[in-house]
Design goal:
By secondary structure, the chain is mostly helical. Helices cover about 80% and strands about 0% of the residues. The C terminus is likely disordered.
Amino acid sequence: MMRERYHRQLKQMYSLMAEMGGLCQDAIGVSVRTLSGDEESARKLEEHVFAVDGEIDEMEREIETICTKLLLQQQPVARELRRITAALKMITDLERIGDQASDIAELASFLRTYEDEGKTHLAQMADETIRMVRESVEAFVRLDLDLARSVIAYDDVVDGWFHRIKGDLIDRIARDSSRGEECLDILMVAKYLERIGDHATNLAEWVEYAITGQRSKNGEPYVPEGERTGGI
């Protein structure tokens, strides 16, 4: 009976993780759409992003509660313990992705007055980060190590978009210094998207840990803080 309840809770955790990942994808995509269009439509999109960010925050607490119950009540074995630990780490990154989507939406009122030329690549960069988030969460639910590692490698693509956008903006300022404020706002959006890519990479690294017990970042086994020795 206890094991049946445990597996139901574990299944619920995976389901909620997939749902939380979907909300993050929605928030990213809509946040970039707030940067263009008429004021009334864009305002509605902003409100949608903020509402979704609130849902993401609530879902983080819900998943955290389930994981805590799994740890305290079910005493999972090592492999299952890694997966629950990974989920607890991943929801922090997912929550931050929601926050950064909101940050992009907050910049929208400044950016909507600028010509579309300076914002051309932001939607493309956003699509790449959405792909990373989607595939990292899929990798966790499916326990797909190859997919997780492909997400880690794909971060170079998002970084490449950031450097391309930054280079374009530097050239634009060199041609017309009066556009400095406009370019800075666009660069801030690109930086938020680049950070989302970093969070997606973290997600994939935690998937790798859940499966193998190690993360690509340092190649060492992850040890919870309470079990570490030799330090303060």
